[in-house]
Design goal:
This protein is mostly beta strands. The chain is 6% helix and 47% strand. It has one helix at 53-56; strands spanning 11-17, 28-34, 38-43, 47-52, 60-63. It has a five-stranded antiparallel sheet.
Length: 64
């Protein structure tokens, strides 16, 4: 599924495919909050990013 399609949070997802260098294929991403236009995601310890829905469409994830 695309990250932009995620509706269940907070939850950890495995990154299946991405070209975004902030995330790694096979890594984990925690979706902390979803709004109409953006997602708040955390990676590692202490790093968090706000992604627009268009950015999130380019990241494929699967539930962990």
């Amino acid at each position: 599924m695309k990250l932009s399609e995620v509706t269940i949070y907070p939850r950890v997802y495995n990154v299946v495919e991405t070209n975004d260098n902030r995330f790694s294929n096979g890594g984990e991403i925690k979706v902390c909050h979803v709004s109409d236009n953006s997602l708040l995601v955390a990676v590692g310890s202490g790093l968090a990013f706000i992604l627009g829905k268009e950015e999130a469409k380019q990241i494929k994830v699967e539930p962990r």
